[in-house]
Each structure stands twice: as C-alpha cells, then as structure tokens.
Amino acid sequence: MPRRFGCLHHLSCLGVWLCCVTGWAGDLEPARLAFSSGQYAECIAQTRKIVAAQAEDEDAQLLLSEALWVTGQYREARTVITNAMAQDSRSMRLRWLAREVLQSNGESEAADRVVDQIIQSGASRPWTYRNDAGSLVILGQALLLRGLDPKRVFDQVFDNARKLDPKFKELYLAGGQLALDKHDFALAARKFQEGLKQLPEDADLHYGLARAYAPSDQGSMLKEITRVLEVNSNHIASLLLLVDHHIDAEDYPEAKALLQRINQINPWHPESWAYGAVLAYLQNDLEAEKTARQTALKFWLENPRVDHLIGLKLSQNYRFTEGAAHQRQALEYNSDYLPAKAQLAQDLLRLGEEAEGWKLAQEVQKQDGYDVQAFNLVALHDKMDKFITLTNDDFLLRMGNGEAPVYGAQVLRLLSEARTNVCRKYGLELKQPTIVEVFPEQKDFAVRTFGMPGNPGYLGVCFGRVITANSPAARGSHPVNWQAVLWHEFCHVVTLQLTRNKMPRWLSEGISVYEEIQANPSWGQHMNPQYQEMILGDDLTPLSKLSAAFLSPSSDLHLQFAYYEASLVVEFLVQRFGIEQLKAILHDLGDGVEINSALQKNTLPIQKLDEEFAAFALKRAHELAPGLDFEKPEFAKEPEAGPPRKAPGKPKPKPESTDSWATWSKNRPTNFWAMSFQAQEFVEAKKWTEAKPILTRLIELYPDVSGPDSAYRLLAAAHRALGETNAEREVLAKFAQQDDEAIDAYLRLMELDKAAKNWSAVIQNGRRYLAVNPLVPAPYRFLAEASEKQNDGGTALTAYRALLALGPPDPADVLFHLARLEYRQGDPAARRHVLQALEEAPRFRAALALLLEIDAASSHPKINQAANAPDAPP
User: Fold this and answer.
1) Which of 105, 148, 552, 615 sits between 20 and 30 A of 122, alpha carbons compared?
2) In-domain check, residue 577
3) Strand locations in 410-503, DSSP E?
4) Each residue of 447-478: pLDDT tens digit?
C-alpha cells in the first residue's frame, strides 16, 4: 500500500506581508505580536482601535483584514480590505490580500481581476515597484498564476527581490510554495531551509519545511510542526497538517479533537470542514460527511480546493473510486484546476482505467512543464509502451521486454495459483482481470506507484485490482523472494476488493503476511531474537493503534516489526476465533462498519482484544528457542540500523569491543549471542572443528533460525572445509527449508545433488533459486539437465528457452538441446533452432546429426511418427 502523497495547505496568507513589514507605527507592534503568536481576537481588538483613529493606516488595515480572514470573518474582512483599496488602489499588498479575501467570499471572478490589475500595474508602472521587494514578490506570484514560465519569474523577478532584501520572508515562502505545487519536495525543503537561515524562528517557514518533509519523512515533519506550535499554538495550517497525519494513522479521535480546536479559531475554515468530511466518510457517517462538505462550501460554493482535498485524502486511504469522483467535481467547478486533474490521473491509473489516466497525465504535463510528478509519469508512459504484455483470463501482466521472455510465464503461473487458493479461501469471485506491472528499475516502480522516485523500501504495492512490483533486477545486491512478494500483493487484491478498500492498514498487511506463511512456511515474517526483544521491551503496539506503527516508524526495524506484529494479530484472531470470524470482519468492513465495531461484533471489545493479544504476543516471544538465553550485554544494546527480513546471527561488534564480547561470552554456554559470537570467531579463524559443536548445538536449540549469518550457513561452511560432503548437504537441505532467499545454499545444493544424481532435489532447489532470482543462467542449466534426466521434456524446454532469452555465452549448446526436445515433441521450431546452432558452431557434430535426422523424418512419416512418440528416449 502506498505512502501518503502530501497535503493541501497554502502558505499564501498566513502573516503574508504583515509580520515582516518594517516601519510600522509603534502602537501596532503589540497587535502584530498578538497575530504572530495566534492571539487573533486580541489582535483584532487592537487594530480596530488603530483603524478607527487612523483610517489611512495601510499596515493596520492589512493586519485587521488578515486577522479577520484567519478567524473566518470573511465578510467583515472583505469590507475592511475593499475600504483600504478605495484609499490606495495601487498597493500591491492590499490587492494580494484582497484576492484571498474575495475568493473566500466566493467572488472568484473579482479575485481574478485583482490578479490582472497587479500584472497591469507592474507592466505600466515598473519604476514604482522595482525597489520594493514585497511588491516584486507579489508581482511574481501573480505572473505565476497566469502561467508565466517559473524560471523567468525566478530569474527576472524573485532574484531582484532577493537583492533588495535577502531576509524578506515572503520570497522564501513563495519559492517553497512553487516547488511544492510542482511536487519537487527536495527543492521546496531547500527553499524553506534557505529562509530559515535568515529567519531561524519563523513559524511559517518551519511549517513550509514540514510540508516538504510530509511525503517522505513523517518524523521530521512532526518536529517542524512542534516548533511552529511552540511559537503559535493556533497556527491553523500546522494543525491541519497534524489532522492529516492522524487520519493516515487511523487515529480518528485525535483528528476530530484537532478539528474541533481549529473550529474554535475559525468556525468556517473550508479545509478544516473538508477534513471533517473525510473523517466522517472514513467512519461511515455519510450524513455528517454531506454536512461537513456543505459547510466547507458555505462562502465559496464552487471552491475546487474543497473537493480536491476530500478526494486526495480519500485516495490516500485507498478510496480511489470516491476520490476520483471528488476530483471530477473539483474540475466541474474549475476545469483549469491542475491539482485536481493531476490527482484524477493518478486515481484512474490506480483503478486500472489507464487510457483516461495516461491522457490526463499528458494534459497536465503539457499545461505545466515544471510539474515533476506529471513529467515523471509521462516519461514512464513512454517507457512502458515498450513493455511486453502477457495475458490469460484472469491477469494482464506487463514486464520489461528483457524479462518477460525469461520468467513471465512463471509470474502468471504463480499469480494463477494465488488467485485459485486465496479467492477460494475468502469466498471472493473477482469480476475483472487483475493488472500486474513488474518494473526492472526501482525508480520506475516508484513513479508508477507514488508519482515520484524514492521509497526504496517498498517491494510491491496493491491498489485493489492493480499491482505494481519491483522485479528481481531492481533489488541489486539485496535479493528478495519475488514469489512471496507477488503472493502477498495478490492477497491485498482479495481483501481490498472484499472490503471495498475499507480496511485499516494493519489488517490488510497482517492478512497478506499471514497468508504468505500459509502458502509457504519459509515465506513471510517469523519471530526472531530482535522481535522477541521488542515484544518483551516497550515496542509492542496495542492492536487498536497498530496502523500508526506503519506511518512514522522510528527505524527500518520498527517498520518490519509492524508487518510482523500485524501478521501476529491475524494469527491470534484466527486461532482464537476462527477463519470464518475473520472473513465476517472483512464483510462487515465492506458494508461500512467501523473496524472496532466489526471486531467487537465478531470477537471481543477492542480493550479486551488489546489485552488478550498482548498476552498472546508475550507467550509467543517466550516460546522462541526456550533452551536459549537471549540476554544481550549492555554494550551491544545500541540501536540497530535495521534488520534483514530474516533473523540475524551474532551482533556485529566493533573491533574495539571484541575483547568485551569474548569476556562476556565465556560463562554463558546457552546464550544465543555468546554462542553466535564464539562460532563466528572460530569460523573467521578457520577453526572449523572448534566451530562445529557450537553451531550444531545452536541449531538443536533454535532449528528455525535463518538469515545471512544463520548457524546453518556457518555449519555447512565448516563441513565443506573439512570435506564432509554428506553432512554439508544435510545441513544445507534443512537450511533451504527455512530460508526463502538463500540462493547460495540453493546453488551449492544443486551442485552436490547433481554429483549425486539426485535429480528431483536439483529441480527443487532450481525452482527455489528462480523464486529469488530468475535472471541468471545457472539455475536454468541445472533445471534443464535434471528435467531431461527425469524425462520431463516440458520443464526442460521451458528452462532452455529462458536460458536462451538470457543470452548465454554458448548459445549453440542451448539451441541444440532446445531443438532436440522440440523435435521429440513434434515442434517444427526444432529445425530452425538446430540450424541456428550450426550457424553458431558449424562443426557441431551432434547438431548436424540432429538436422539430418529431422530432415530424414520429414521425408519418412513413419520415422517422424516414432520421433513424436511421447516416451521417446533422450
């Protein structure tokens, strides 16, 4: 499931020109400080007095209008700002604020005329504004609204403003906002950071930086919001960003409390009510949703931002159909509102409505050449045009043209098996084919999935009927079992469609990991020493809060643990209440029942579930290798950088701590870490005989251990070094059953079993290897030879064809074997392939003999019939 895609908040008018204007009258300073600290009522009271006494004071009029606008007194703000403009029709500051005030009152045409007036004034009287940084920035923003090239605006307008006043806050706010609008979050962060170098305590700049962090770094976002609220506890945009965060964490009570707090500041804030509509919808209160949306549109009936924001948040919570409907409504209000068009393109692509989705993405890119997300999508579309599409009745599979011929058929077989098993288990009949896209490059996967490069930790994502995944080629030096990944994602297809995408993230992920293990015990997440330590410590998240664990984990380890814990919850529910109750929960969610209500209806109240699950998890943690002690020394308890998917072996000590480890390990004969450390030391010193008994004992006490430093792998290395081949094979065979990514073990087993002529074992480990990396020749060679020995011509043919597609260094030999198998099966392609073999190696005697046999058989039907017999000997 994808991460969040950013938030819709504008920096336009929060203290726009008021907090940074110098030369104000002394009696306005307390009102200015009241505004910047969020004491808006006090600011309004003070500025009213000043305006009453000095009606021509532009700064006071601006501040009063701004404070009224922030607190939702839109009509009074309009009166104040229009009166001020009547006194000074040339003021850029007054006009720019008037634009926002007029829009908030639903006067969008009048607001547009103000923008035109700003541009006309800048063009007709340039000398009036060229020495005023504030007016230049306003002029630049107006030009951007009218579609002027952003680079020209920066070079010709904003740079001049910077030279006039490098500490002018609005310059950095405008630049950062522009980058946010173009989905260039890294550039936005740099712009706000540049501003903070000049104004390190400015709340609006910290808020802008929080928005730049929001799509990718929730922890940093929250830190920036905390800094804002320390300065101004009523900073509405920051409170809305927190609402956004809590909705994504499925912490609806906290989101609701924040909205109530915002409503006390501004009872008519359109985005606050838009979030209220989202919250009501997610809680299946459709009447409250309707009321909240109507309230959001109270003053501006055709405000496209409202439906765009509602749709955006619904889509971020996997309600793509409903989200797309709101984007269409926003575009009905304003057909040129690009944020809605861009989001609609993404929604349609995730719904599988690709023709319209790609068309809209191209329109956005054409209208705004600087939108990074649209540019990325259009570039990706051009790449995907070259993909190969494989289909059957149930799937539409797209893969790179260098990969589809190699293992595309394997992918379709795996997906078909998943569909049969999982759909039967959960009682779902899929009405439409599932779309699966496998990307050879991680950045292309990220663009298709999230709209932007990045998010390297994601292996695959499911949107409902569309799956996107990284191919093994994208994993580089970190191989992952692609079959487990696709099985996991297809489980999402089932559960999301069963619930109409109305399920919490923890349950969706938990079922997918749980079903991985049901399909193959070596797949999925399993208890390991790190997870045991986290459960016995303070890292177990209550079931009722589990979705939040996926949103802003403190480390990669904590994110992996969230997946494991979610699967443990599902295992607990199935063991305690049965699979039928789990299915009933899913059906209730699909009917709109809120998750805690669905749990209570089918199991227990949420508080009781929290208690029972915690006890279940503690019991499971204590059951991990009970003959071993997992205590760690204090010096080894520093935070881990992040776990592999499998359990580790010993902690990696720093060189200076080796003596400490040696001392600590001496008198701990059953301590997992001490034994692992001692064994590793012996292995590194090539003291194989000394390492063997420790490793053997470790495996006896913890037979489920897997991972890169597994005792199985080290013990096999010891046996190999000592020439104990049978013992090595036995250990590796057990290890291969435990670890679904141990390609080195699979390869060594194929070598040993080939030598022993154990062809069925060669085939088994060949398939295990291909489930991790199907893009290397070695497993195909073993698989082809073993299948031929087993008279399994179909498997051998498939293996040789894949090997040929990989471009082997000896194509003549592969072509010969392929031709021989095809000839035995009566495939006319045999003659072409044997001729190709002879082109590669003209003196290839066996190939020449096969060609003569094929030609002779084609002239003598009886011979040909014999060659076509199914049991023809190799």
Assistant:
1) 105
2) no
3) 434-439, 460-462, 466-470
4) 999 888 877 788 999 999 999 999 999 987 78
